[in-house]
Model the fold of this input.
Amino acid sequence: MAVKALYNYKFPARDRAEVFGDDIIVYAYWLDNPFFCSASAWRVPKNMKWKDFVGQIFGQLYGLDPDFKKVKEWKWYHFDSEFKPDDEKTLSELGLRHKSIVKFKPA
Done:
C-alpha cells in the first residue's frame, strides 16, 4: 500500500545509529509465540557478548514464558537469514547492527 507524506520530511532521524554511540538497538521476536505478540527492543552495547545478551537481557523478558526454560535448543534468525550465534562473540562480531532484528523459535 502506497503512503503519501503530508509534508516534506528533510531532517535526520532521531534514532539514527550515530546518536547511540557504542550502543545499538536490537529487536527480538519469538516466532509463533502467543505470549509475545510483537518484537521487543533493547539498547545494548555492540561489544556485549551474545551469552550476556541472552542471559542478562533477553532471557529476563522471554523467561517470563514458562516454555522458555523448557526449550533445549533455539533456531535463530538475523532478519530472515538463519544464523548460529557463538556465545563468546560480541553482537557486532555476529553481524548485528543498529536496528537488527533477531527472530527465534524452538529448534
